[in-house]
Every structure is written in structure tokens, then in C-alpha cells.
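Hi both,

Apologies for the delay on this - the queue was longer than expected. I finally got the flavin-adenine dinucleotide-bound model through. Below you'll find the protein sequence and the ligand SMILES exactly as submitted, and right after that the C-alpha cells for the full complex including the ligand.
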Amino acid sequence: MIGIVGGGLAGLAAAYRLQRAGHDVRVFEAAAEPGGLAASYETAGDRVESYYHHLSKSEETIVELAAELGVGERIEWRVGKNAYYVDGVSHPLDTPWEIAAYPHLSLYDKIRLTALTLGIDVRGGRPRRDTYDDIEAFEDVPVTEFLLEHTTRGVYEYFFEPLLDAKFGDRTEDISAAWLLGRIKFRGERDLLRGEILGYLDGGFAVLVDALVEAVGRDRIDTETAVTELSFSGGDSGTVTDGGASAGDRIAPQADGDSTPSVTSLTTQRRGEGGSGTHDVDSVVVATMPDVLESLTGYGCDVDFQGSICALVSMSEPLLDTYWLNIADDAPFGALIEHTNFVPPERYGGEHLLYVASYVQGPTDDLWQRDDDGIESLWLEGIESLFPEFDPDAVTDVRISRNPKTAPVYERGYLDMVVPYDLASAGHPGVYYAGMASRAQYPERSLNGAIEAGYAAADRILDR
Ligand SMILES: Cc1cc2nc3c(=O)[nH]c(=O)nc-3n(C[C@H](O)[C@H](O)[C@H](O)COP(=O)(O)OP(=O)(O)OC[C@H]3O[C@@H](n4cnc5c(N)ncnc54)[C@H](O)[C@@H]3O)c2cc1C
């Protein structure tokens, strides 16, 4: 049996691929439901993600998976309108004329910003299209230094700096230019006349999670069950630990004289009175944050993670006229994302759904220290001070999700820190990694990246 630690999209994708190839899999998920960071809330209509989610046009693996699972026709590509709140005014930034009208950048700034987003290096007056092809060459360049050199001070100060500050806070100085270039490439397509094209699933991403769960088999997914320990054996040269698996599952014999132990079983702890259990395995895919991998194997990973706090505010009327609002002014949150300006409110029984979101850099962050009531009152007051016409009585519900590890800090040298898919070479034969610190989740973590990470770990097992 192949044990999968974590029933987020990465773990479910790994389980799905392995099972389709004929392997016996079992997924262990600590939470009450599978889905991980892509979990959803109920509304008066469709379910909606507890953290805002959309797809970029460049992401193909998730689209292919949805098609394979029979829900492909439910992917919708919609315009996700963007605006920037500066000095008390919301500036739409979707069309060329809206960008031309944006008052905080000069014409020259706009030309330099546009050139960068199109991947054209105009330094020295001779446009080059190949400067940014090798993104990894910018891995050690600080993003701030890069922006000041490749755009203008105005672009940096009035466009990128507030965005970087909202995303990375005091870690901004550590972030690599490679991350930014990857992001620019990764964000896909624009409709020149309407704005950025983003994907969503009719019914929410819960539809995809449900389809994966069904394909893997509910009975193969143990929820409220945390994996607490892996046991290794092996010992002498060439020892193979089989655990009763099919021939294809066998762990390759180690080289003569290699006494590296191989994984043989995992121990689980069920929530509450559920007790512990032991399961024989011949391989394990760890599809969690790397701290869980470390606790199970001792494999340490230096990637730092940011936490997220995200409120879903249900309202009887809309607040914004854009989907995504970045905020340059002082505000107690990083962004406002009005989901029902992207997906119509009729899908949610007429509720208008607004995400209020903030990253946190660690447990000592003031915001993290607040309880949910404290966050709710701070954020609703913050909305009122940005939008004096906001009517708090229009708020019918506020639900808050928080998680201390939700996004890697893509700092310089990041690629040297990613966890390999196959940990055999790190001394843990039979252990595979598909969590957020894997290569597929670079330059930005995503649902698509999680699926690719799950597939990559599964493929290493299948190739064995
Ligand atoms: C605020 C926010 C916004 C986002 N926006 C987008 C977006 O717009 N588009 C997009 O594509 N992606 C977005 N993402 C990213 C996306 O949600 C993630 O990349 C993806 O869900 C990660 O999946 P995963 O399976 O790797 O990890 P997770 O979803 O974290 O799953 C890991 C699972 O492992 C379980 N687990 C942990 N420890 C154990 C243990 N010991 N035993 C058993 N189970 C364990 C956890 O409970 C969890 O369910 C966003 C994420 C956040 C937080």
C-alpha cells in the first residue's frame, strides 16, 4: 500500500494518479474534510472557497484533470477586474485607456512598466526580448534592486512597492527578482479591451475536490487522521522492504553495503478518542508543508512560510465595482477581493461575497495575535474608513480562516531549498514529497502547482 500524508489537492492528485496506475493507496488527512487550503464554506447557493481562488490562463494541468474527471466543462473563463486604491481613490487598471488615465505614473513610467510586463528589456534604448528568458539567472537578484534597474523609481514607488509590502511585508528585501519575473510570465492572458482572464469552476473548486475524492474512493481517505510517525527498516545490504505490495511497488534494493533504512509503516492518530493505528506501506507521499516532512523523517527544509488570515464577508449589497482591489494607502488588510464581481451573486442565493485578506509573517504579527472578533471589528472599521459609504448593516455574516503556513517566502536562492520529489537520495528511500516546498509550486503556489507536485511524486514511484 502507498500511504499519502495529506488530503489537499497535492495528496489527492498523487493518490489519483497512483491508483489509476493500479496501486493500492490510502490518504490520511488530519482535518475533518479533504481539500486543504482549497476547502470551502457553504453559502445560500454554491459553495465558495474559504480563501479566494481563481486560475490563470497559463495553467493547464488542472484543466486537463478537470476534463478527465468529467467536470471540465464547468471551468469558466471570466474577466477579473483589477483596481488600485491610492490616496483615497480607486483606479481601475484593466484597459489601456484606464492605465493611460492612472495619475500616479508618468507616461515614461507607464512605458517602462508595460515593457517589463511584456518581457521587453528597453534599457539602453535598444529593445531586447531575450533578457528575461532565463528566469533562474535572476534568482540571486533582489527584487527591489531589479525593479529600480529595469523600470523607474516612479514604477517602483507608486506601483510595485505597495504590492510587495502587502505580500511580503518586512521580508520584501529578501525576495528574488526571479519570483517577480516568474509571476509576470505565469499570470496569463489579458483581453486588451476588458482586462485579465481568470478561471473559476462553476460550483466552486469544491466540485473538483469532490470529483477527486470520488475518483480515489471515499473509503480510501481517512479524515481526522494525522500521520504522526514513519517507521523505517532495512538494515543490511540490498534489503528490500515490501510490505506485501505488488511487484511494481517494491522499493529498489539499495547498493551493496548501503544500510539506509526504507519506510515500512506509518502511524496515525485519529482525532479525539479515535486512537492510533499502524499501517504497512511500501512508499509514502508526504503532501503537506515541509515541517510535517521534517517531523516524520528529519529532512529539514529552509523555506520560510507566510501565514494568511482571510475573512469572507457576506453582504446584502456590493461594496466595490472591481474583483481585485490592491491598496497602496494605509489599511489593516492587504487586499479586498469581491468574489461576486467575478462570479455572479445569483450563484450564492444573492449574497455579495467579499474577501478581506492579509498575509502575516509570523506568529508575533499583531494581526495574528488578535482573535477573530478583533480581526472582524478592525477590518470592518478599515473598510469604512476607505469607503465612507460602506454600510456595516449590509454585512450579514463574517467567516474567518487563518493558517500559519500558506505561502512560501520566495527569497533569493529559493530553488536551492526546494524539497526533492524523491527523498531516496536524501537518505529516505520510499519517501516522496509533493507539498508546497516542491519545485512545481514555483514561482507561485497554486492549485495547478499542487496537482503537478502530486503527479510528479507519483511519477517518481511509477518510474521506479
Ligand atoms: C489565501 C490563499 C489564496 C490562494 N489563492 C489561490 C488562487 O487564487 N489560485 C490558486 O491556484 N491557488 C491559490 N492558493 C494556493 C492553493 O490553495 C494551494 O497551492 C493548494 O491548495 C495547496 O495544496 P496542497 O495539497 O499542496 O496543500 P494543502 O492544501 O495545505 O494540503 C495539505 C493537507 O495536509 C494535511 N495535513 C497536514 N499535516 C498532516 C498530517 N500530519 N497527517 C495528515 N494530514 C496532514 C492538512 O490538513 C491539509 O489538508 C491560495 C492559497 C491561499 C492560502
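Main takeaway for now: The chain has a mean pLDDT of 91.

I'll put the files on the shared drive as well.

H.
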